[in-house]
Structures are given as structure tokens and as C-alpha cells.
Amino acid sequence: MLAACGGPYPQSTLAPRSDFGVAIDRLFTGIFWWALVVFVVVEGLLLFSVLRFRRREGAPAPKQHHGHTALEIAWTLAPALILVFIAVPTVRTIFSTDKGLPGALRVEVVGHQWWWEYRYPDLGIVTANELHLPVDRPVAVDITSADVIHSWWTPALGGKRDATPNHHTYLAFRPDSIGMYMGQCVEFCGASHANMRLRTFVESDSAFQAWVAAQRGTPAPPATGSVEEAGRQAFQRYGCIGCHTVAGFSSGIIGPNLTHIGGRTTIAAGMMMNTEDHLRRWIENPPAMKPGAMMPSMHVSATDLPALIAYLQSLK
Amino acid sequence: MSHAATTHHTSMGLDSRKMAFWAFIGSECLLFGSLISTYLIYQGRSVSGPTPGEILDIPVTSVSTFDLLMSSLWMVLALAAVQRGDMKWAKIWLFGVVVGGAIFIGFQIYEFTTFVHEGLTLQTNLFGATFFVLTGTHGAHVTVGVLWMGTLWVRALQGKLGPEHAMTVEIAGLYWHFVDVVWIAIFTLVYLLHK
Amino acid sequence: MSEATGLKSWLTTTDHKRIGLLYFWTAFAFLLIGGLEALVIRAQLARPDSQLVSADTYNQLFTMHGTTMVFLALMPIGAAFFNYIVPLQIGARDVAFPRLNAFSYWVFLLGGLFMNASWFLPGHPAPDGGWFGYANLTARQFSPGPNIDFWLLGLQILGIASLAAGFNFIVTILNLRAPGMKMMRLPVFSWMTLVTSFLIITAFPVITVALVYLMFDRVFGTHFYLPAAGGSPLLWQHLFWLFGHPEVYILILPAMGVISEVLPTFSRKPLFGYTVVVYSGVLIGFMGWGVWSHHMFAVGLGPIADSVFALTTMLIAIPTGVKIFNWLATLWGGQLRLTTAMCFALGFIALFTVGGLSGISHASPPADLQQTDTYYVVAHIHYVLFGGTIMGLFAGMYYWWPKMTGRLLSEPLGLVHFWLTFIGMNLTFFPMHFIGLLGMPRRIYTYSADLGLSQMNMLSTVGAFLIGVSMLVFVYNMWRTRRHGAVAGPNPWGGATLEWATPSPPPAHNFDVIPTVTSRLPLWDTKTPSPTPAPGPVHVPAGSWWPLVAAVGLPVMALAPLTHSVWFAFVGAGILLYGIYRWAYEPFEV
Predict the structure, then answer these.
(1) What residues in chain B have their Cβ under 8 A from chain C's Cβ atoms?
(2) Which terminus of chain A faces fewer neighbouring Cβ atoms within 10 Å, N or C?
């Protein structure tokens, strides 16, 4: 029935791909079935009463019952018992999913209006908006915010956790399937809350190691006279270096780290695919694409723009 | 002033205005409770000084506290005087309450201005923010009380207050005592038990 | 004695019935406004990547939809019934403090106008931080315009209206009951009004403090919620939800009271388990204070706090469920008349149950970590607030319309209204359970087509417009009834409670003779007729200008932080205090 109404559903919570997600799904499934039982009983009694006890002409006045103590006790205890069957697995799951596993890969998430900063403190990597994780290895996420409250959520990998300024919150999970998982900010954070999206790539260990190696590398300066080199000069001339870091070249920290932007599948925090056309439209007028964006229109000339884009795309 | 509820029978045998006022006091407990709780939660979490230990003047505040407590005594005596129809002493005691309250406000103004001079404002740190909002709210309540008692005193002077108005004086007294009790809580938690 | 008509009589009225009507029409207008805001929201979300409204406008729309529905529509419609019906049900001539009652209404009207005035300023800076206004997004740094100021000032004004009404109804119900009307003979609607009033006077001070802190942060540069100086945005969440959870019980208990009257009347049987239903309501009131952090399961409070609040939240489901079973038992073996009022009451049971069950799934923190802040929650809240509160209030409207206006609403039109509402409501909100579990967050002005949720969103939008049509049917019914509605006698439904012992509508003094009550169902209980005391002189208080005058002082004071001019505070306070002074010393006999 779900498939008939759309789908596939890349942000579904019902197809978990981590131990955390699976634990939640199991718990929710249990609760759902109990809820269905209660639903059927209550709605069934309601429907039955409406049909069976409709007023008939000439029927005698109904018996004026005022109450029944045994019944009151029964329908107090029965729900209480059902709640015990929900409460016990709930508390168990709270505690079992609270602690991380040893040997976890540490990831730090910093929410910004309206993008995600990612750091791998043990690997010396700083990136943005697209996270890469090795399959079957536990992850320990440390979440905070640089401005207002956000919330970090990749539904397939489990529950969400708020990103609160001046606080650190934690999530622990172990992804169990290779794939690309979509998510987005899930605490109202201002004008472009809807546009603060993210992608998480769970890959084989070798693919992950290759990604790590590439991320840790500093991009080589472009060949002299190349269009990429002209682009790099534009990157400096137009002031991009003031807000963005490209390792070995610029160290602005207001906007996302662009050292390896060429290798990302999306730009503007998951809003658009990373294509030449989207890059051009973004650089021309960021607030038009993303309301409230702090990056202003850079007024890059028509001659400089293709070079600038070529440079960015070369930063793999 | 409406005296309807006193002339009508009431289901619980209590004057409706008095009952309403007790409900109001219950509500005010939640108000001051929230303010005091926030003060306590933020205690010790200021990022910069001054700290309570550095700036609070307990001897001086003890005097103003004593003054407020005494004013509650004058209030009790004022009510007793009104109830027995002794308007001469009612005027004296009511005036005492007004003066006592005004002195307390005077002390508050002195304290606030001193603190500002010494570098503690609303904006300085969390202690400043929580302290001024809490004690300022209390001071505003005292001010309202002074105006209320002042109005009763003026009406007494005009001969418009008598034993038939004892209920309104009793309710005014309830307000005054409540404001006093809140101050005792604030004085204890903020001044005496500061970290 | 004939009643005065004309504008002055309405501006100075202290009659609970007139005040009830004022509340009703004002709140109904706000209900329509909140509904329009919802329709624009749904129009925007009908398609992915839509640009029907800008992001900023959308954020204002969902903020004002929530704020309007909670504070300007649902609570005041409940207040309309408290006002009109409770004094009649308890056998009183009016509330304990008629002028305070008028004051509550005028403050409500002025607060609602104040907040909505923001739509009409250049740039329409309507509130845009959500109805829940989380810090630190609401800080001056991140919300520089006056939007949030309109919100926090408007709510503070409205809070005063609610508090005043709370005090009034507590004293009225406890102190003005007719002889023989013991507490355990009170109609359940009056009982729920009492519990709701206690919740109001204890919960509203907490949000007042929260809003005052926010105002100080924005206007005076304090750091209550700002991390830079050691403050925490979480303080706002705790204060807001300490208020916010009792608030949802303030929203549902009156509707539960209504259906506890409607179901027995149209089943020809007394409410099953009256004592248990009453005590459950009281228990819910108390327990509602212990669950607030279930709104904060994603915040990271720690496993112990999460577990405690999970358990307290699950516990509160028990008295709620007990009430549902007692309502079902009331129907059982009865002679059901499916009038429109009864249909809405039955609809309440059906739909509130769904909302209650999704609420149980929210009570489990790990499950909630997938559900919270998604459309699954939007489904939950609308099943309990629309499927619950609004359906219950509609039941009350059809039930008490003849008492309040002297005419019966059309039943055929009523049934059309009911079915369109029932179908429309389910079409709008049931898909949202799926939309949420399939990954759509709430409070987003648009969404990607990649999510695969476009068709379900369109379905939801169609449902919303169906609800809009149902409202048009109801408005037509109300309008048509003025001239063509069947004239109602004192007790068109054969109800059991005292409001049905008066003419429709009742005269200003309600009862010629205050009845002596000997049973919980005075009009059904013919076994012990009440002795009829000789009628005495009936006094009806004159009106007063002073509640309105005093009320005006409040929005004037609120202009001070908005305009950064402290003079407004003094002038407004002066108006308020002068109004109170004249009020206090005005000759006024109840």
C-alpha cells in the first residue's frame, strides 16, 4: 500500500540500516501491534454500540446503570498491563542504545545555519554536509551547534539528536549496509531550516580508507595557465578565501570547508546536485536559492565564473 | 467595592473575594517559584563576576528585611483596629505599613544603584540577570502593595473606611503578608545561603 | 425585565451569557483565521519544491496557525462555554466576579488583535519562531525584527486574560452552587472547568516567567537563554513545557467535559462511572505536571531522565483510557439518538483514541527519536486537538446552540458538516503518520520530490480543503438558523442538568427561583421533587465601563518594548491602575 502512494522513500525510518535503527524499529513494531489491538477493541466497541443501540421507536427506556466497580478495576488494570509490556522494552532500549561501543570511529557534528560541519578528530579531517562511514564499524557522534538549536537526523541510521549551542549531545550506532542515506535538520532553525539537508555514505572499509586518504590530502596547486588556476585566483580575488577553507590555500571558517568540494555529490547542504549549472546559480545568488543564506551574491563576472567553477570542481 | 459576596450565602462558607485571593496567592507561588528556581539553577554558572559573595550586603539587607517584617506586624494591628471599629488606630497602623513598605523600596533602590555602581547590572552576568529580575519582581509587588495600602489609608482619612470593610482590609493584609513571606524565601536563598 | 441592546450595553456588559457570546464569536473568527493559515500551508505543501509562499512567510504562517488555534480559538471557545453554561449548570445567577469576567474578555480580544496587528505593518513582521518559540532562535541576534516581540507581548497580554478567568471560575464553581448542589452532583462539564481553571492559574505563571526572560534578553540585553554568557536555551524548553504540557490538558479537558454531557443525554442513560470520570479528570490534572520532558526526548537529557518521563507519560494514559471506557459504557445498552451533537461526540471518541495511541508511541523515547519533529507528531497533535478538542467543541456548539440562541441549528446541515469534517480530518491527518515515519520533518516550507512523499502530501492538502468546505457549511447553518432555525423550548434534547431548566435563551437573571438540588440529574430525577421556595426579588447588576478601560491599559503598556519608548509603559500602567481603582470603588451589586 505504501509503494502505491509514492516511494521509494530515501528518508524512511521503517527500513533501518544500523543496530540503533533496528533496535528502535523492533520497539516501535511492538508498540504498534499493542496500539492496533487497543484500536480494534475501542473502535470496535464504539461501532458496535452505534449500530446495535440506535434508538428504536417504542422501545422501553434503557436501564439506568450508574457504574460497576469490577469493570472499572478491569479496565484500569488491562491498560496498565499493556503499558508494562511497552515500558520494559522501552527502558531496556534506552539504556542499550545509550552507550557507544568500544573502538568507535569518532565524528563531531557542528550545526550551522544552514549547513553541517563534520570533523573526524582522530583522522584530522574537516568536511561538510556529506559524511562517509565504514560499514560494520561502530560510530560515536558528538553533536553541537555554532548558533541556534538544530537536530541531526539520518532516519535509516537511527534516531535524531538535537544540536544545542554550548552543549554536547551524543549518538552511537553501527551501520550495517552499504549505501547512501539521506537526512536533514529536524529542529526549526530559521529561514532555511527546510534546506539544511545531509547525505551519509556507508561504504566498504577499502572505499572508506580511500576516501579518508583523499580527504587528508592537500590539493595540488593547479597547472600554471590552466583554467583551474585562473579560477583559483578568482577564488582569492572575489574574497571566497575570507569565509571558506581550502587546505594549503585559504583558511576562512565562516562557511563550509571546500577543500574537497569537487568530490561531493551535492552542494548547499544537500539542496542541489553538484553540477556546473547548480554551482553557477548558487554563486550568482545564494539567497535566491536558499532564503536567508549568509553568503551574499558574489558578483562574479561572466568571464571569471566558468574558471571559478572549474577550480571548485577540480578540488576532489 | 463590591460587597455582594459577603451578603450572599456561599457554598463553602468562605467569602468569595477571600477565596479568589487565596487562588491568586497559589498562582503567585508558581510565579515566584519559577523565578527562584531559575536563580538557583543558574547559581554559580556566571561566566564573569561580580559574584553574590562579593557584592551582597547582608547587614544592610537584614535591616530592610526587619523593616518589612515589622510592617507585617503593623498590618495585623491595622486589621484588628478596623475590625473593632477603632479607625484612629487603623489610620496609624495603615500609615505604618505604607511607610514600612516605602522604606523597603528605598533600601531596594539604594541596593540596586549601589550594585550598578559596583559593576553588577542586568547584562553583566547570569547572577545580575536572575537577581535583578527576581528581586525587581518582588519589589514591584511591594510597590503595588504600598499603593494599595496608601489607597486604604487615604480612604480611612476620608472617613470612607470602616469595620464593614474589614474583609477588604483582610485581603490587603493577605497580600502584604504573602509578599513578606516571599521576601523571607528570597532573603534566605539569595542572601544567606549564597555560594 | 427586558435587556438593553445597542453597542454600549455590549461594551459594558457583565452578564456571563453575553460575555460567553462575545468570547464565542471572537474565538470563532480566530478559528477561521487559523484555518485559512492552515489552508495556505497545505497549498504550499501540496507539491514539492513549491514557491507559492516564501520561506519567511511560511514560517510566519505555521507560527500563527499554532498560536492562533491554541490561544485565540480553542481556549476561548472553551471559555465561551465556561461562561455561558457553568453558572446555569450550578444554579447560579452569574459568575463570582462579573466585572473580572468582562475584563478577561476584553483583554483576550485586545491581545489577539495586538498579535495579529503584525500582519498589517510594512513587511508583515508576524511572529515566525514557531508557536513554541524555542530559544535561542528567538534571540535578537537570530530574530532581529519585531516578529518575536509581537509574539511574546501578545502572549503575556493573553495570559492575564486566562489567569483572571481561572480565578473567577474556581470561586464560581466552589462558592456559588445552588443549595444541594454538592461537588459530586456537579455536571462533569463544570468539574472539568474547575480542573482546567486550576491548571490555568498554576501553568500560566510559568510561561509568564519564560516570556519575561525572553523579553529581557531581547530588550534589555540579558542572557537568560544565550550560551555566550553561560545561559542555556534549554531553560526555555523546560519552562515552556512545564507550562506547555498542562496547557494541552487545558485544551482537552473542557471538550471531555462536553462529551460527558452529550453522550448521556443522547443515550438516555446517565454517564457511566461518574465518580471515576471526575477523579480521572482531577488525576490527569495533577499528573500532567510530571511529564513535560517527553517533549525533549531528542535533547539528550540522559537515560535516567528519559526513562522517568517515559514512565510518567505512560502512566497518564491510564486515567485517559479509563474515561474512554466509561464513555463507551455509557453508550452500551442505551437508546442512541444520532443528532449532530451526538455524532461529534462519537467522533471525538473515535479520533481522540487514534491520537492517544500515537501518543503512547511518543512516550517511548527510542521510538520517539524517530518520530519527534516529524509529521508523525503533527498527525498526533491534530488527532487529539482536532479529532479531540474541536470535535468536542462542535458537539458543544450543536448541543447548547438552542440554549444560547433560542433556535436549533439545522440537523441535516449539521450532519453534512459532521461527515465532511470527519472525512476531511482523516484525509488530512491520517497520511501524516506515514509522511512522518517516511522521513518528512515538520516546520519545513518545502520538501524535495526525492522523498517520494509528494502524493501523500497532495492527499493531505485535499483533505484540508475539504475541512474548509465543511466550515462553510457550518457558517451557512449558523447564518440560516438566525431566521429559519426551529424555535427551541427550554429542553429540546431532554437533558438532565440545570441549564435545561431555564428558558432558551435564559433571562438576565437566569433562574426566577434558585433551585434546590437533590440529585446529580435534576431534570431526570422525578422521584424527589425539589421544594420550591417563594420567589424573592431578583437583582441583576448594571454594566460597567471599567473592565474595558483597565483592559486597554495592557496593550498600551506592551507598546513600550515594541517602540522602545518607556512612556507607553507609564501611560498604559496609569490607564490600568486608574481603571482598577474606579472599578474597585464603583457601587456594584452582584
Answers:
(1) 1-2, 4-5, 8, 10-12, 14, 16, 19-20, 23-24, 26-28, 30-31, 34-35, 38, 41-42, 45-48, 122-123, 125-126, 128-130, 133, 147, 151
(2) N
**How are beta strands A105-112 and A139-145 bridged, if at all?**
parallel
Closest residue, chain A, to C319 (C-alpha): A76
Taking residues B3-27, what's their average pLDDT? 84
Query: Per-residue pLDDT tens for A111-151?
Result: 999 999 999 999 999 999 999 999 999 999 999 999 999 99
The model's pLDDT over C196-241, given as tens digits with 9 standing for 90+, comes to 999 999 999 999 999 999 999 999 999 999 998 999 999 999 999 9
Q: C272 touching A, CB under 8 A? A: yes
Taking CA atoms, C47 is separated from A110, C98, C432, C447, C454, in Å, by 31, 51, 15, 8, 6
Answer CATH for A13-57+65-96 from 1.10.10.10, 1.10.287.90, 3.30.465.10, 1.20.1290.10: 1.10.287.90
Cβ-proximal residues to B95 (8 Å cutoff; 6+ apart), any chain: B153
Q: Give all chains having 3 or more CB-to-CB distances under 8 Å with chain A.
A: C
pLDDT of residue B195: 64
State pLDDT tens for residues C295-327: 999 999 999 999 999 999 999 999 999 999 999
Please report the pLDDT score of residue B1 as a whole number.
41
**Cis omega before residue C101 (within 30°)?**
no
CA–CA gap between residue A134 and residue C369 (Å, rounded): 23
Q: Which three cell numbers stand for residue C466?
A: 475539504
Confidence class of residue C529 from pLDDT cuts 50, 70 and 90?
low
Query: How high is the ipTM of this complex?
Result: 0.95
Q: In the predicted model, what is the mean pLDDT of residues C67-84? A: 98
Structural domains present in chain B: 72-195 (1.20.120.80)
Best to test chain C binding among B1, B2, B174 (most C CBs inside 10 Å) = B2
Q: Is C525 on the interface with A (CB under 8 A)?
A: no
Q: Do C175 and B10 touch (CB under 8 A)?
A: yes
Specify the CATH number of the domain A105-216: 2.60.40.420
Cα B138 to Cα A204: distance, rounded to the nearest angstrom: 64
C346 touches chain A (CB under 8 A): yes
Q: Quote the pLDDT of residue B8.
A: 65
Residue C19 lies inside a defined structural domain of this protein: no
Contacts of A23 in chain C (CB under 8 A): 366
CA dihedral over C401, C403, C407, C412, signed as positive or negative: positive
Under 8 Å CB pairs connecting chains B and C tally to 116
Give the pLDDT score at C1.
Answer: 40
Interface test with C, best of A26, A149, A161 (most C CBs within 10 A): A149
Rounded Cα gap, residues B101 and B105, in angstroms:
6
CATH number at residue C46: 1.20.210.10
Searching chain A, which residue's CA lies closest to the CA of residue C236?
A: A149
| A143, containing H or E segment | strand A139-145
Confidence of residue C527 (pLDDT cuts 50, 70, 90): low
Domain that holds residue C393: 27-521
